[in-house]
Design brief:
The chain is built from twelve helices and ten strands. By secondary structure, it is α/β, with parallel strands linked by helices. It has one domain: NADP-dependent oxidoreductase domain (TIM Barrel), CATH 3.20.20.100. The longest helix is centred in the middle third of the chain and has 19 residues. The N terminus is likely disordered.
């Protein structure tokens, strides 16, 4: 896949494969569960062959790091992939004691390196914004050579992300954004990140599948999203696009986005998503048509942490 984004010495492919599904069942639209390791190996191999060389994981994604590490070794890919992982969220006890916090952070990163089989990771992020008070500790581990970039995986509310983008210790951010949730895209964080060369990885392109699932499968508590989805579906249909393609190519058209995360459970999903990336950003007329919709879903509908349990 052409059009890789260069950030420092690391190359992040425009498509970044999210791997929470490789470690645990995940997503409101997930109907296939967690793929077995042989299927993960097939997906990873096909992804790399298709130009997807960036992978996103986390210490708290079940067994995702272990599975990825074994698959990279099995396929001989350790020198060809760029991995972003996240520190295990600190407990209240960790946050209340500086020594405990430092120990927990170092232990989490050390375990990630071991499980992934990587001496040097491309980026390590705090999984929770509230843990970013310990950015100095994460920076210290980066200075040891354990990883290249440190940063934060941000919540949906954009204010803190703008501040992180200007923090000299931060070199990578992960942000949620999609056709329905444009809060970060309108906040100024992308411009602030671009000024400092901060890599920006966008997750939730399909809003955990809520944008793509059959209308009859939308949970009752989130049914308010249906009218907004219908408006977007009409734009996609008029342009001869599927909703998944509209969602991915929309984010590719946003200046300042380094990589867009996709999560898959099957090889068919991977192939379909890779084909969307290969078609490039949406043209200006479609971006304008989406903007004219002036979509205004509720905070509940676009904030997965507020969703009721499945």
């Amino acid at each position: 896949m052409s059009g890789d984004s260069v950030a420092g010495t690391e190359r992040f492919s425009r498509a970044m494969l999210g791997t929470v599904q490789f470690g645990m069942p995940y997503g409101v639209a997930n109907r296939t569960g967690m793929p077995d390791e042989n299927l993960v190996a097939a997906i990873v191999s096909e992804a790399v062959d298709g130009g997807v060389t960036a992978f996103d994981t986390a210490a708290s994604y079940g067994v995702s790091e272990e599975v990825l590490g074994r698959v990279f070794q099995r396929l001989g890919l350790r020198d060809r992939v760029t991995v972003v992982t996240k520190v295990r969220p600190l407990s209240d006890a960790d946050r209340s004691d500086a020594a405990r916090a430092r120990e927990a952070i170092e232990r989490s990163v050390a375990e990630s390196r071991r499980k992934l089989g990587l001496e040097r990771i491309a980026a390590v992020l705090f999984h929770r914004e509230e843990d970013a008070r310990w950015l100095d500790e994460l920076r210290r581990l980066a200075d040891r050579g354990w990883f290249a970039r440190c940063g934060v995986s941000c919540d949906n509310v954009p204010g803190p992300a703008v501040a992180f983008a200007s923090d000299p210790r931060v070199a990578a951010l992960q942000l949620p954004a999609n056709l329905l949730d444009t809060r970060h895209l309108r906040s100024g964080v992308l411009a602030a990140a671009a000024r400092r060369g901060v890599a920006v990885f966008v997750r939730s392109a399909f809003l955990q599948g809520l944008l793509l699932m059959p209308e009859a499968s939308v949970p009752a508590a989130l049914a308010g999203v249906v009218p907004w989805r219908r408006m977007l579906q009409r734009i996609a249909a008029d342009a001869g696009l599927e909703m998944g393609e509209l969602a991915i190519r929309y984010l590719l058209a946003i200046e300042g986005v380094t990589s867009v995360l996709i999560g898959v459970e099957t090889r068919e999903q991977l192939r379909q998503n890779v084909s969307y990336f290969q078609r490039g950003p949406l043209p200006a007329d479609l971006l304008a048509a989406i903007e004219r919709l002036a979509l205004s879903p509720s905070e509940l509908e676009i904030t997965p942490r507020l969703w009721p349990p499945r």
